[in-house]
């Protein structure tokens, strides 16, 4: 659907997006995952034609000229700080966004009912936006972005700061939309959401460090992961071990990376006398977090 080649955006001395080449296929949920400041928003803004690239290309596959311009104009973009009008009701907000797309009232009404049903906001049509919960506000923002029936949705960290239950709910809506054929590009700083995408690109310091299905990215992980439960939370006892390629504390346990051919017993033997109160050592499959920690540190996968 969209392909970028060496897409770059420079702000003064900073290269916010650095030679990014990605391809988003029609009908997929493509996740752009990375820490704050990675360049996700800047990349999305270029794809929506809101800012001009410094260099590189954006190609809309199977389209050119006027059709391509129209297609970009029809994207539904939900920016990070989406402004809803707090003193307007849910329905008044939707009417406002629909009117910006020159839609007539009846069309807006029937589309709104359909989307509000899907997002479970139908009961709140007359509630002021200011009185919605955080998760509901995000769903209303999504509804507003959908009212123009876009060919593609571009969502910039739509679940940022939203509680876990509402995040799940939001993703359920994205899955429903995708099942109906919607292509979705979504950025997130939450690693668990990377697993929910069909394809994921990890972005860091303007560059794409890896792009593939979450499963393939994990399969290519070059190390064995040992999960160590210990009484100490201090990484110090692992630092001096020559077998250890990397180690970090994550989810109440240590994740220790060793070469694939290093036996667990060899690690156990080394840490046995270290007085770290090791309770349990077991091999675990690499998680998407393991991949991303390594990518952010070393950019090797
Ligand atoms: N208009 C601008 N002028 C100067 N620098 C900018 C501009 N827009 C973004 N930047 C810088 O470019 C870098 C990438 O920012 P961007 O907002 O694209 O990252 P991000 O991955 O979306 O992170 P966040 O989630 O924090 O927004 C940051 O260092 C940011 O300060």
Query: How many runs of DSSP E, i.e. beta strands?
Result: 14
CATH architectural designation of the largest domain:
3-Layer(aba) Sandwich
What structural class do helix, strand and pairing data support?
A: alpha/beta
CATH superfamily membership of the largest domain, which one?
P-loop containing nucleotide triphosphate hydrolases
Please give the largest β-sheet. Answer: 6 strands, mixed
Low-confidence stretches: none
Distinct ligand kinds: adenosine-5'-triphosphate
Keywords: ATP-binding, Nucleotide-binding
Protein name: Putative ABC transporter ATP-binding protein YbhF
Organism: Pelotomaculum schinkii
GO molecular function, one term: ATP hydrolysis activity
Task: Give a description of the structure.
The protein is of the alpha/beta class and 301 residues long. It folds into two domains: 2-213, Rossmann fold (3-Layer(aba) Sandwich); 222-285, Alpha-Beta Plaits. It is built from eleven helices and 14 strands. Strands 6-7-8-4-9-10 form a six-stranded mixed sheet, sandwiched between helices. Strands 1, 2, 3 and 5 form a four-stranded antiparallel sheet that branches. Strands 12-13-11-14 form a four-stranded antiparallel sheet, with helices on one face. A hairpin with a 2-residue loop joins strand 12 and strand 13. The two termini are 26 Å apart. Adenosine-5'-triphosphate binds next to strand 2 and helix 1.
């Amino acid at each position: 659907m969209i392909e970028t080649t060496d897409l770059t955006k420079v702000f003064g001395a900073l290269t916010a997006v650095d030679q990014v080449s990605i391809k988003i296929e029609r009908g997929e949920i493509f996740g752009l995952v990375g820490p704050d400041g990675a360049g996700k928003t800047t990349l999305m803004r270029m794809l929506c034609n809101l800012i001009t690239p410094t260099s590189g290309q954006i190609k809309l596959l199977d389209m050119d000229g006027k059709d391509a311009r129209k297609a970009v104009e029809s994207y539904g973009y939900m920016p990070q700080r989406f402004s809803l009008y707090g003193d307007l009701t849910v329905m008044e907000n939707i009417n406002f966004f629909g009117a910006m797309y020159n839609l007539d009232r009846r069309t807006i009404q029937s589309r709104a009912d359909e989307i509000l049903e899907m997002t479970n906001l139908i009961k709140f049509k007359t509630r002021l936006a200011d009185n919605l919960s955080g998760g509901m506000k995000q769903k209303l923002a999504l509804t507003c972005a959908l009212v123009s029936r876009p060919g593609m949705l571009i969502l910039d960290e739509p679940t940022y700061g939203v509680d876990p239950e509402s995040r799940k709910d939001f993703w359920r809506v994205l899955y429903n939309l995708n099942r109906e054929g919607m292509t979705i590009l979504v950025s997130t700083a939450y690693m668990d959401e990377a697993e929910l995408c069909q394809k994921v690109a990890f972005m860091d310091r303007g560059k794409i460090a890896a792009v593939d299905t979450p499963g393939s990215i994990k399969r290519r992980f070059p190390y064995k992961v040992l999960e160590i439960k210990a009484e100490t939370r201090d990484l110090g006892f692992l630092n001096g071990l020559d077998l250890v390629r990397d180690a970090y504390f994550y989810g109440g346990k240590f994740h220790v990376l060793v070469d694939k051919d290093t036996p667990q017993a060899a690690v156990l033997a080394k840490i046995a006398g270290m007085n770290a109160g090791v309770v349990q050592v077991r091999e675990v499959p690499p998680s998407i977090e393991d991949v991303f920690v390594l990518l952010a540190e070393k950019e090797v996968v």
